[in-house]
Amino acid sequence: MVIYIDILIIINVFISFLILLCASGLLREKISRPRLIVSCLFGGAYSLVILLPDMGVAGSVLLKTGGAVILSLLAFRVVSFRAFLRSFLSVLFISFAFAGIMFALYVLIKPDNMALNNGAVYFEISVRVFVISALCCYLLIKLFLLLIKRYSPADRLCALTIEINGECAVLKGLIDTGNSLSDVFTGKPVTTVEKAAIRRLLKETDNERKGVVPVKTALGTGMLETLRADRMIIDYGGKRYAVNSPILALSETALADAEYFALVNPDIFENTE
Hints:
The chain is α+β, with helices and mostly antiparallel strands. It has helices spanning 5-27, 33-46, 56-75, 81-109, 127-151, and strands at 114-117, 120-123, 157-164, 167-175, 190-194, 210-217, 220-228, 231-236, 239-244, 247-251, 262-264.
């Protein structure tokens, strides 16, 4: 079978786009346009491995794994090893799933206009068929991602705007259904925030705002420093909630690797405007 390099690269640029679209949905992390373009171009260039001698199953797995490493590094921001590992595993899983489907199609149907080697795939199809297939794949993936978002209990990320003395900090938070932390004296729900995420707001806070709250973790019990902010806005589920005089527990350690920087007690919604 004759393989046309331009068609090979274009098809695999599109396949890379679909893989990254799925990975972005699974990670709930948007990919910037420049990163998406560079990543897809790499995916197209990577497809040239189809021209190499057959490396067998082990060689294909190694090539696919290496390609997934580079693709995830190009597409997603690397803020920590854990964040990289999540993006890499998502890209790798989807890449192998796609390769598995293509291999099954290749073995069962044996199409004359399809070639599969070293984990790369090639179709010899018309522009019309390619465009229709692209639109169908896009719609199916969008439906898949919508279903994941609708039924996944992990979709609890929100945006927090914390105001202290006229200064604001915006950060990502997680609605933690297992969080029942509340202030001992007032009974108000407490939001746990990474201290580093709002450090610039703490420079001119007076002692009247400060306090402590007892916490219990897997490592035992302890105390966290608390701070009363002026106002906190929670953007969640397409709605905006305002909390006056929220109490923040300041964590010296990171809560998650750039996934979120605050844990919100869900009881706080009972005291919002």
